[in-house]
């Protein structure tokens, strides 16, 4: 999203901050209000309060989640206050966004278990020293039944039914539980409690973010601006990144796997990932893109992106090692670090060895892998499911990434 020519006279610092804000975003609403907030912040030296709420619905964060976290870090680096809000209360309701059925709420134990890892993982992107971490149970629990009724009185059912997923479910005759109306109300009330100036979220959160603006006005506060970020396409380049689609990169995945997964994306998708995931400036990205268009191998750019993402979550040394590991694999070599184990009872059938080495879940899966041509012993493809390995040491390989060094004895 480009800065429009109609932007009023503003300082260079505010113009820069606006440009950083708009990088890769889907919408910034209302933009003119955000410019005024930035200008006031510059004039008074008071940082703006920028809020991101995440419900701990799963124990791990994937790279798709970091699109919004990256934007938070960019704004944090401009000197503003970042509030990482863990929705331990709203998780008990269950966010109905984008769903065609009532979402089952999480238990208190599930929420606590997931929340333990959320901030630790988010801190790999955000600067922990400049991040305010909050839990919305702080103000939601004390609200009580009376406060909840008073809050519910500030929004109409007609307005609530304008929400796309509610509207579609109502027209389709699908059930909508009353408690689902409470979710956007409570998320909006978070903005009141935190006095936020800007709230970030994915495009699927727009209704909830606008609720925050409405409720802040109802409570006599200056309304927040809202910023929505696109949903990142996964490895397939089609669907949004999701564990259920198996097209994701978990930020806790080991470095070699993370590096290889980034390299597996298409050359076209790579540039979108650069915009949404890289910390390089837009000018640096455009310069790299111009080099590729002029004839430079796009794989060079993809390797640079893979190293940057891997280094962010595992460090520069691990990223360099992952690059070397990938080079070794592409040349048919064996990585330096692979699991080693010893087995007795040789000769042993190849499928049983694959199972005991942890390269196949069962002997039947081992046989299927052999049928598919995905098994190698000492770099030679195995085609005989009846192969028995005599005493000795062997390097077993399944696919491109799974290895084990097995020593067999009688």
UniProtKB/TrEMBL annotation:
Main localisation: cytoplasm
Annotated RNA-binding S4 domain residues: 348-409
Top-level lineage group: Bacteria
Keywords noted in UniProt: Aminoacyl-tRNA synthetase, ATP-binding, Cytoplasm, Ligase, Nucleotide-binding, Protein biosynthesis, RNA-binding
Catalysed reaction, written as an equation: tRNA(Tyr) + L-tyrosine + ATP = L-tyrosyl-tRNA(Tyr) + AMP + diphosphate + H(+)
One Pfam family of this chain: tRNA-synt_1b
Sites where the protein binds ATP: 243
Motif ('KMSKS' region): 240-244
Matches recorded under Gene3D superfamilies: HUPs, RNA-binding S4 domain, Tyrosyl-Transfer RNA Synthetase
EC category: ligase
Enzyme Commission number: 6.1.1.1
GO molecular function, one term: tyrosine-tRNA ligase activity
Motif ('HIGH' region): 56-65
UniProt-annotated location(s): Cytoplasm
Self-association state and partner proteins as the record states: Homodimer.
Function description: Catalyzes the attachment of tyrosine to tRNA(Tyr) in a two-step reaction: tyrosine is first activated by ATP to form Tyr-AMP and then transferred to the acceptor end of tRNA(Tyr).
UniProt xrefs under HAMAP family: Tyr_tRNA_synth_type2
Family statement: Belongs to the class-I aminoacyl-tRNA synthetase family. TyrS type 2 subfamily.
Protein name: Tyrosine--tRNA ligase
Organism in which the protein naturally occurs: Variovorax dokdonensis
């Amino acid at each position: 999203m480009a800065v429009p020519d109609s932007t009023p006279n503003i300082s260079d610092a505010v113009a820069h901050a606006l440009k950083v804000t708009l990088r890769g975003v889907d919408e910034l609403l209302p933009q003119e209000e955000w410019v005024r907030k930035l200008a006031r912040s510059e004039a008074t030296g008071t940082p703006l309060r920028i809020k991101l709420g995440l419900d701990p619905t799963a124990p791990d964060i994937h790279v798709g989640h970091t699109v919004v976290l990256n934007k938070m870090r960019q704004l944090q680096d401009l000197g503003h206050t970042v509030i990482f809000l863990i929705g331990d209360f709203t998780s008990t309701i269950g966010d109905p966004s984008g769903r065609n059925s009532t979402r089952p709420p999480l238990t208190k134990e599930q929420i606590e278990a997931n929340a333990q890892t959320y901030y630790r993982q988010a801190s790999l992107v955000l600067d922990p020293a400049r991040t305010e971490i909050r839990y919305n149970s702080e103000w939601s629990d004390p609200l009580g039944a009376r406060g909840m009724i008073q809050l519910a009185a500030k929004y109409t059912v007609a307005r609530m039914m304008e929400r796309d997923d509610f509207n579609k479910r109502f027209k389709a005759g699908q059930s909508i539980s009353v408690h689902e109306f409470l979710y956007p109300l409570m998320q909006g009330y978070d903005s009141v409690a935190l006095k936020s100036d800007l709230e970030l979220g994915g495009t699927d959160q727009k209704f909830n973010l606008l609720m925050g603006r409405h409720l802040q006005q109802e409570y006599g506060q200056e309304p927040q601006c809202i910023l929505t970020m696109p949903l990142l396409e996964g490895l397939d380049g089609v669907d949004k990144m999701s564990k259920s689609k198996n097209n994701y990169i978990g930020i806790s995945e080991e470095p070699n796997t993370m590096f290889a997964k980034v390299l597996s994306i298409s050359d076209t998708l790579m540039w979108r990932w650069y915009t949404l995931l890289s910390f390089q400036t837009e000018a640096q990205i455009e310069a790299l893109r111009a080099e590729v268009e002029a004839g430079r191998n796009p794989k060079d750019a993809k390797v640079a992106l893979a190293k940057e993402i891997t280094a962010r979550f595992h460090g520069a040394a691990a990223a360099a090692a992952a690059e070397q590991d990938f080079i070794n694999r592409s040349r048919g070599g064996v990585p330096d670090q692979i699991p080693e184990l010893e087995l007795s009872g040789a000769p042993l059938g190849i499928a049983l060895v694959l199972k005991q080495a942890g390269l196949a879940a069962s002997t039947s899966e081992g046989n299927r892998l052999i049928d598919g041509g995905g098994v190698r012993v000492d770099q030679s493809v195995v085609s005989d499911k009846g192969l028995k390995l005599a005493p000795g040491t062997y390097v077993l390989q399944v696919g491109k990434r799974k290895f084990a060094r097995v020593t067999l004895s009688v």
